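Q: Could you fold this chain for me?
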Amino acid sequence: MFGRIIQTDACVAEGAAWLAGQDARFAAALALTGPLPLRRQEDGFTALLDAIVGQQVSVASADAIWKRLEAAGLTGQDAMAAASDEDLRAAGLSRQKARYGRALAQSGIDFAALRDMPDAQVVKVLTAVPGIGLWTAEIYAMFALGRADVFAPGDLALQEGARHLFGLPDRPTERALRTMAEDWSPWRAVAARALWAYYRVIRSREGIR
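A: Sure. Below is the predicted structure, expressed as structure tokens.
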């Protein structure tokens, strides 16, 4: 139905070793980044709401909004379903994200059933909910469900990481990066971790933006 589930740091290390063996450029990137993070989180409503909160904002902004939602008791499914626009705006959510959060809370998704679905079916179920696009669904599959062979080519940091690592003249499009990532199967989610980590390293160097 689907491939490996990433459960431990050892799983990530196995995938990283495979990628390094397949492509010397990944080996060079991993030499710079060191061990890659596990980045697993508990699956369910809260993980998906967290992904919605993080859409198109900085990590710092997302963290601040999440803390305000927690303080207001609005991170649970029942509380989100019943929350008013005023409640959610007071916690920092835009009107659009407030609508998305409530739509998710009222969607009736069987989160336990997602664990046994093929990757493509997981994405199909999640993207049927307003506000959950391909990127959010793929991030959920990677980190909440631990799918080892899911990738999120619409992510700008992954595109930039790939541009630098592979010496591309321009940032690859989502479609182009999805095609590139086929070579990294069955460890595409580890390739994503490697590209994110590599991009963080090169951004810290003087003159790289």
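A (continued): The longest helix spans residues 188-203.
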